# Entry
Amino acid sequence: MHIPILTYHAMNVASNRYAENDHLALAQDLQTIRQLGLRVISLSSVVDWWRGLLPDHAVEGCLAITMDDGSWFDYYDLNHPTCGPQRSMLNIARDFRNQHQGQPAIPMSSFVIASPKARSQLDRTCMLGKGWWDDDWWEAANQEEVLSIECHSWDHTHPTLDQVAQKDNQRGNFAAVACYEDCYRQVVEAAAHIEAIAGRRPEFFAYPYGQASAYLRYEFMPKFQHEHRFNAAFSILPKAVEKSDDRWFLPRYVCGRDWQSTRELKALISS
# Structure
């Protein structure tokens, strides 16, 4: 028994072709999932199954969908300067439901970066500099209970930032977050900040770059759960979730890396 988790990056808009546009990929992938007779369930349901709170038959033929980084492209329709209008990931899921009578809502999770300062700088250095990495949509997304807001660390330790929450200011490597103080800032303080804005404590954590130090994965996450209050954490190890997987390093497939066409997706989730 296993459950695939598909991960998208909504800022991946390099062209209007499937392999270079995660919006187009998601729209086509939802149709593929339906054609295969599969069902999208929430990330909470996946973890509940892993914990033994849901029986196998309740999640048979199911998968989950997540997004990383949490820009406006997750929530708002935007006019990309070179690729034109882009339907948001949320609205793509809404459109799909409206196209198919009786189709339930598509639950998805967006892993967002907590730090406003980091997002502001990343908007200029990594995106389009249009202020499209704000947090004004987090609470509304949570209230709708379709796109849940989860935690993708305080600042992603991104290499283009001037300063990151790591004791030696090591950037571009989340595995360098390897002591209690740094973990507390990147995990606990990030969760508290997201909760204050989004109105709900994030339930899950996704490691930037899929990286976790041995201390973070084997010490901080399991032993300080009373502080961070997450129910699971996610990597980008390319496989489906099984009961034998580590709760604090659950795997996910990544669009563009692990599949670049509907044919490749079918092979991935049908295996």
User: Anything to note?
Assistant: The longest helix spans residues 180-198. The mean pLDDT is 96. The longest strand covers residues 62-69.
